[in-house]
User: What shape does this take?
Amino acid sequence: MKYPMLFSPFRVRNFTFRNRIFSTPNATRFMKDETEVLYLEEKAKGGAALVTVGETTISSKSVKRGYESLPRLDNRWDWPIISEIAMGIKNHGAAASLELAHRGFYGAKFDESYADPIGPMAFVRADGVHVRAMDEDMIEEVMEEFAEAAHTLKLCGYDAALIHGAHGWLPAQFFSKKFNKRNDRWGGKFENRARFPVELAKRIRQRVGGDLIIEWRISGDEMIDDGMRIEETIELIKLLEEHIDIIHVSAGIHEEQKTLKYMFAQSGFTQHGCNVHLAEAVKKAGVKIPVVTVGGISTPELAEQILAEGKADIIGIGRALIADPFFPNKARKGRADEIRPCLRCGNCLHGVVVNDHFACAVNPQVGQDFRWRFAGAPESNKAVVVVGGGPAGMTAAVTAADRGHAVTIVEKASALGGLLKISEHDAFKDDMKAYKDYMIRAVNKKCRVLLNTEATPALMAELNPDAIICAVGSDPAIPSIRGVDGPNVYGAEEAYYRYRELGARVVIIGAGLVGCETALYLAKELKKDVALVEITAKIGDPDYWRENTPMMEEFALLPNLVVLPETSCRSIDKNGVEIQSKDGTVSMLKADAVIVSTGLKPKLETVESLRFCAEDFYSAGDCNKPRRIINATREGYYAAMDI
Assistant: This one.
């Protein structure tokens, strides 16, 4: 057993957990759909000891969220799907849990038909919504709603209920000094602020009896001024532990976007295991119940180390189990190198928030269960040539091989990886590098690989494939600027490989995500003086804030990185770049090297040259349209599935 601590069983009440890996809750938007059953069932099949259904409202009275796809525990019509989810999880040996939540003053109010949200204090939110202060009757009603919701879970076959007392939701609002300034028995001094969560835990235990496991999620530190700190949190946990069974120690609060990285929005800029120190403090304080730690723990090695050092009893894993639901089983069998790494890119949550589309950048099967589970086997095994070894091509090649086809992948460069290869140089891209290496291992294991080989019609005639999947990617889009073809001008990708040639001063033209990431790499990792020139007012991609926000925080720490928005580039010469600001002022930026990062264009000529070289032809990834990894992997996957 390579990870003896991680796979040591333990017992809580009447349930024996088969290992120390808990699948933490996440939103999907199809929770009234059979897809949710299949999605969570896959995690149970993959070996997690407990699988938690994402945050669910306890009642529709005061906490309407506007997301009608979420089940309601006070609606008997939703009980069948809630029960079906539990059965799907338990069928595969995992415990079934569901997260019960009340948003308190964060409650949605989309129009006048919605009641004003409630909380410990009355105030007017920044969006103009009035929040009502909870009186004794309201407090009693909410406690009853929580208790009844937990009892409903017991009736529906769940092994556990996870009470969401973290991240600024209602129990945390009562306990936090920042939000609870009441002068009655529910606020003020510590004992009064702790009263609501403690009485709530007591009420739930009284209602469900001794069979249902009660978990509690808490923010060890809210990471805001006047918020909860670990010292007070520990004292609250000591009051709670008489009535609950397991404590989940998270961090952060919805009130402050900068703290989301401790909750669910970890990125490449966030340390793996960012909240472990908080769980460790709880353990050291002598808390008697099992302690769960969460926050970017995405390898069995890190999980085992945390447990071996006594910093936690259980490892809560979220996105890594979306990337690979079979993470636990692969680790238990000594096949950790086959675990598909999570990029921590946030596409899973970003899609839910932005367009109600739950998906994963590296696992194209997520949320598509009805498509892939019931896809028929190929009519026959075919000879397949995949052209291009980037994420689209590698995904297509592995998928086709897994379906029984004989796959040859043709790559013009000397190594597989495509644009993912820049991760070999950038410290912020360690997750991407792990994914690249994983995919290369899978391709080499399952496919014939031809490197340093250009795909031509003549080569296709020689290979004689039944099907071609063209994933040749894209080229830099070069703007019409005088001097752009000079010897001191590089593309963004070249900057990673030819960094020794760049000199001490660099100007980057184009401040999209790629330009910003390149600027950060050069300024922080290589200590170069960097000027980032952008013709628009937008820096990075604010819509993709889970990546953009932490990157802008890094920018603010670098005095050698200058950002010039609404500034155009007039010309380039050996001395640098002539620029023009919004007010028309023309000036010269001295530079040893200039990097052009103004987008990509698909390699359409290569695509068309191969289109009729096999009976079946598909294209995938940037050669269709330059976008993100998630688009490349999905198109590569479905191209292979169509053969």
Q: What stands out?
A: The two ends are 39 Å apart (CA to CA).
